[in-house]
Amino acid sequence: MKGPFAGLLRRDRHGRPSSEASRRSPRRGARSLLGVRSVAGQVLFLQIVVAVLLIAAAVAALALQARYDSEQDAQNRSLAAAESFADAPGTVAALKSPDPTAALQPHAEEARRGSGLDFVAVMATDGTRYADSDPELIGRRAHDIGRAAAGESITEIFEGAPSDAARAVVPVTDADGAVVGLVGAGVGVEHIGDAVNRQLPVLFGSAAAALALAVGSSALVSRRLRRQTRGLGPTEMTRMYEHHDAVLHAVREGVLITGGDGRLMLANDEARRLLELPPDTEGRHVADLGLDTDIAELLASGRAVTDEVHLAGDLLLAVNTRPTAPYGGPPGQVVTLRDTTELRAVAGTAEVARERLKMLYEAGVRIGTTLDVVRTAEELSEVAVPRFADFVTVELLDPVVGGEEPTGVHSEMRRAAVSGIREDCPLEPVGHLIRFVVPTTPMAAALRSGHAVLEPDLTIAHGWRAQDPEGADQALIYGIHSLITAPLQARGVVLGMANFWRSERPEPFEEEDLSFAEELTARAAVAIDNARRFTREHAMAVTLQRSLLPRGLPEQDALDAAYRYLPAQAGVGGDWFDVIPLPGARVALVVGDVVGHGLHAAATMGRLRTAVHNFSTLDLPPDELLGYLDELVSRIDREEGVAEGDGVTGATCLYAIYDSVSGLCSVARAGHFAPAVVRPDGTVEFPEVPVFPPLGLGGAPYETAELRLSEGSQLVLYTDGLIEHRDRDIETGLRLLHSTLAGRPDRTPEETCQAVFDAMLPPHRSDDIALLVARTRVLDPSRVADWDVPFNPAAVAPTRAACVRQLEMWGLEELVFTTELMLSELITNAIRYGSEPVHVRLLHERSLICEVSDGSSTSPHVRRAAATDEGGRGLFLVSQFAERWGTRYTPTGKVMWTEQPLDGGEQQAVGPLLDGLEDLEDLAL
């Protein structure tokens, strides 16, 4: 038998059904479906009877409807013909003529034939016929015409003499509206029946087809039902279902049947009791029955299980599920539930173990989410509250908090975290120094043994009270009654201590809780140690990086500068900046970024910054300096990248030189963002500076862009950490920087730095941020003097005299002697060893700057002259009198320059060298 009761039929030892129907002979099973002893036969007989009755009723209704429609049609045609005849021209005149019959009879007969009616009659107002299709009726009176004589048109099924008919009688009125006669027309009833009889074959044919279809479909349904019921009769079926209900509701095992869509189809009394199901459960989805999550998910999943244990309220149920489809039923499953109350104790242990495993899993996920030592300790305390303890305190050694290796005695720790179910606990707060000086305390015992220690009842724990009697009394009054203390150890080294306290929960800690506490603290100790190591490495990297970055800005008069630098929160990177004074009242601005984080990035940044300083002493233009820096990075990559697997490819750099005399700024960049320029009117622009690949990738030579900056302009240099992070793309960052800088040209560089950081600093810094803001100055033209020198040794003396006069105008008489000596030597060398044109320039800035340029690129060198040498002492003399001196090359030649302090400074003893001045004097004459 198919259906939900198939499994309840008893079977013999060979698996065959043992019911009465299965023991019948094959002859009994082959009976006609019309037999009425089986349920299938009765259903077929009843279906055929119902079909016959319905079809007969339908045929009768259709026949009556056809007759009714025929009568209505006859009446409508009669009415139309009578009205047409009554309204025809001449009808009124014929009625008023002396012989109405002679005038109307031909027309009446013609109208009858034209309309297809059985009769057309014209009558006087009293019903006397003037004309009729049957001449024998002329002169005889018609019946039931009173309403028509009163002026009303009537249609009816007339029964009476001369014959039954569907007739219509309409009045004929003259021009005054007076009724002058009547016109009657109609169809005999026998003719109406003929029309209905013509439709009967169609009706009976349709009825026969419908009956055949009903009998065929009933036979198919009966045949399927016969297979379902296996030929059982009503009595047998009733008895079987009674047995089924008795078994289903009498067994002490819950039975559920669910459909393929997860809806509950059947539940016995035991299942309702075990699962506490409401009365109206059938037809509802298992997820809507209020079951425990595990059981609801199991029932909805449709998977087959055997004796799978699930908690249902306070009961522990063994659940078995099997699909119904393999046994002939619709898609679904049969679920049996067995109450295993005797395993309740085991269930409690299993639940506790499962909860502990779940907590350990959560601890692995929640502890150590950051690389912060204190935050990791807080996460440990938060995981254990309230499921394991009511309060948790964590103490750490002071060196651990700072990222150092734990050293010194372990009897003093700093409280790092406190978590609990309430805020008013009497335990020492965070930051308090905890001492374990009494050896009888459980904390001291845990530190000695290296394992967790249990104090189930603190009211009798005298060793715990000995440490702090007053504090212990307050804790007991508060309700704290049980304690587990466990050392935090990693790599065999004690990092701190974790204490688990219970107050609200009445049951004390037990021995089984020790292993869980140790496992929990072991996992936390590893996370704390990792955070400690990271803290130490991060501190070292920050220290290294800050030592490599400038600690202040050098003194110079070309720019007013300010800066900001912040390392990444997760680890330092390789961002750097620099302000480098250059000769000639110029200054270099540098911003760079080494891709990566950590010590390697910081060390690489220091190497690149040092290289930039060294290259800048050569006074190279920005494009050439970046070219040399690119070669250096490529060489570092080749030498270290293969061996260490970590090159520095990806470093970016922007190098700019600002000349305070001309107001020109030369900029070149390698993979870096272009600077922002704030004009004196408050407008902001990002100038077009040719961009080239980062350092170390090689490629085409770098190019320099020339920017003319008015005095008071601000040049803003930055790294990508300022404008780009995970919540903001580059375009958005640049727009935000533009809006922050615009409209406020009056800000000082320091105020600009603060405004940019206030507006753009991200909440979490994943990269370093470097910002450098410089406001330009222009040297007063009155502090600049220059002369073109003819290419003739005789021009040395006049030029020297002009320079002396300029120094006197500036009030620098103290520098006249030394300046004369140096200018004489430099101009003489330019004329003797250089080429045209020769030019001299004096700059009165923070120091006195003397510049002599010529068209030759020959590099002069200082050498030590022998006692017998006639020359060779000039540059040595210059180096002794000048505070700084050097050579820089230009596209048209070179410039020899010197710098002297304005106060004259302390000059070295150069008396022995003055003997060589005779050569200079000779050249000057």
Describe the protein:
The chain has 925 residues and is α+β, with helices and mostly antiparallel strands. The protein is built from 26 helices and 32 strands. The strands form six sheets. The chain has a six-stranded antiparallel beta sheet, with helices on both faces. Strands 18, 19, 20, 21, 24 and 25 form a six-stranded mixed beta sheet that branches. It has a five-stranded antiparallel beta sheet with strand order 2-1-5-4-3. The longest helix has 49 residues, at 39-87. It is elongated. 34% of the residues are buried. Residues 1-35, 866-870 and 908-925 have low confidence and may be disordered.
> How many strands in all?
32
- Provide the structure class: alpha+beta
Radius of gyration, Cα only, in angstroms?
58 Å
Query: Biggest sheet, strands in spatial order?
Result: 13-12-11-16-15-14
Q: Assign an overall shape.
A: elongated
End-to-end gap: 137 Å
- Helix % is 40-55%
Low-confidence stretches: 1-35, 866-870, 908-925
| Tally of alpha and pi helices | 26
Assembly state: single chain
Query: Proportion of β residues?
Result: 15-25%
Let me know the largest β-sheet.
Answer: 6 strands, antiparallel
**Average pLDDT reading:** 79
